[in-house]
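User: Run a structure prediction on this.
Assistant: Running it now.
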Amino acid sequence: MKRPKLNQISLEVALQWIADNKQGFYISMSVGQWDKFLEEGYNHQGATLIELDRQEKPIAAYKKPLIYESSG
C-alpha cells in the first residue's frame, strides 16, 4: 500500500495528550509505514498516529482533521 499524504500535527502536542492521559486512540508506526490498520485508524476512527524512528524515538505525529458539516 502506498502511504497517502497525512495531516501532520505538532508532535509536542500529541505527546502531551498522551502524558496527560487524554482519552484517545493512539497508534505507533515506523517511518513510512502504511497498512490497512493505519488507514482504518487514521481515516475512520480518529486515531493519532505517532511515527517512530529506528531507535523508537517519536519523530512526527499525524491526525486527520475533523470536518464539521454546517447545519444551516
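The longest strand covers residues 58-63.
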